[in-house]
C-alpha cells in the first residue's frame, strides 16, 4: 500500500496522520509501448472512472495508470470525507493551499512513473482537482523539487489538465525565473489545458489564469483550448483534441 504522510497543525504541536491511496487501475497499451501517463480523477471520484474514460481512446501506444486518491475530510464540503488529492476550501488564486497534501499526491504519482522503462516517455493528466495536481506536478518538475524541497525525480514530457486550476499561480513566476535550470525545464515541457466556458464548478477564469500564469513563468509550449457551452465535464471532441495533442507532442505511432 502507498501512504501519504500528512501533517495537520494543531496549536504548538503537529499531528501526523497517514492517508492511504485507493486502488490503481491500468490500461495496457494495445500496440508498442511508447508512453505512460498517470491520469488523475476529480474530487470524490476514483481510478475506475478514469480507466473507463481512457480505455477506448485511439492511443494504442500509451499505457494509462489510473490511481485513486486517499479518502480525507474536505473543507469545501464542510469536513465530509471523500476521495481527494488534497484538502481544499473555496477556490481562489491566493489559496490557502494544502501544500503537504499536494506534495504527497505529486510524490505518489512520480513514484508510479519512476519504474517505467527508460525509453518510455512519461506524463501526467487529470480532470478538475486531478488537473490541479497535474499542473502542480509540472511546476515541481520545472523547479526540480516539491514544495517541501525534496528533489522531483521524474522527467516529464507532457502534462494535460481538463477543467482545472493551478495551485500557487500567483507566486510561480518568481520561483522559476531565479533559476536557469528551472527556466530551461519549464521551456521544455508541453502543457495542454482545456476548459468549458460554461463551467460553474471550476470557473473558466481559473483555467484561463492557469494558462497565463504558466506562460508568463516560462512554459513556452502551452496550448489552451476553450469550449463554448461546456460545463464541468468532458465531451468526445475535447478528448479527440487530447488524443491529437498527445500523438503530436509525444511523437506516437509507427514502430519507433
Automatic annotation (TrEMBL):
All copies of domain Phospholipase/carboxylesterase/thioesterase, residue ranges: 24-247
Coiled coil segments of this chain: none
GO molecular function: hydrolase activity
InterPro entries: AB_hydrolase_fold, PLipase/COase/thioEstase
Pfam families xref list: Abhydrolase_2 (PF02230)
Protein name: Phospholipase/carboxylesterase/thioesterase domain-containing protein
Natural source organism: Sphenostylis stenocarpa
Amino acid at each position: 500500500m502507498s501512504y501519504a504522510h500528512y501533517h495537520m497543525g494543531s496549536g504548538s504541536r503537529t499531528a501526523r496522520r497517514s492517508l492511504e491511496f485507493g486502488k490503481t487501475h491500468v490500461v495496457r497499451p494495445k500496440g508498442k509501448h511508447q508512453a505512460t501517463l498517470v491520469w488523475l480523477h476529480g474530487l470524490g471520484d476514483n481510478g475506475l472512472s478514469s480507466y473507463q474514460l481512457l480505455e477506448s481512446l485511439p492511443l494504442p501506444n500509451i499505457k494509462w495508470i489510473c490511481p485513486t486518491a486517499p479518502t480525507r475530510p474536505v473543507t469545501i464540503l464542510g469536513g465530509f470525507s471523500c476521495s481527494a488529492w488534497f484538502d481544499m476550501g473555496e477556490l481562489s488564486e491566493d489559496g490557502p493551499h494544502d501544500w503537504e497534501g499536494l506534495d504527497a499526491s505529486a510524490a505518489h504519482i512520480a513514484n508510479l512513473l519512476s519504474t517505467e522503462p527508460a525509453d518510455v516517455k512519461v506524463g501526467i493528466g487529470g480532470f478538475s482537482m486531478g488537473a490541479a495536481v497535474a499542473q502542480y506536478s509540472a511546476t515541481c518538475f520545472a523547479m526540480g523539487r516539491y514544495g517541501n524541497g525534496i528533489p522531483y525525480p521524474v522527467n516529464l514530457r507532457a502534462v494535460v489538465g481538463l477543467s482545472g486550476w493551478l495551485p500557487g499561480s500567483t507566486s510561480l513566476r518568481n520561483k522559476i525565473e531565479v533559476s536557469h535550470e528551472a527556466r530551461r525545464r519549464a521551456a521544455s515541457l508541453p502543457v495542454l489545458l482545456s476548459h468549458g466556458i460554461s463551467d460553474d464548478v471550476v470557473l473558466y477564469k481559473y483555467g484561463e489564469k492557469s494558462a497565463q500564469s504558466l506562460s508568463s513563468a516560462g512554459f513556452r509550449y502551452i496550448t489552451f483550448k476553450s469550449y463554448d457551452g461546456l460545463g464541468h465535464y468532458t465531451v468526445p471532441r475535447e478528448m479527440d483534441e487530447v488524443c491529437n495533442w498527445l500523438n503530436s507532442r509525444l511523437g506516437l505511432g509507427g514502430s519507433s
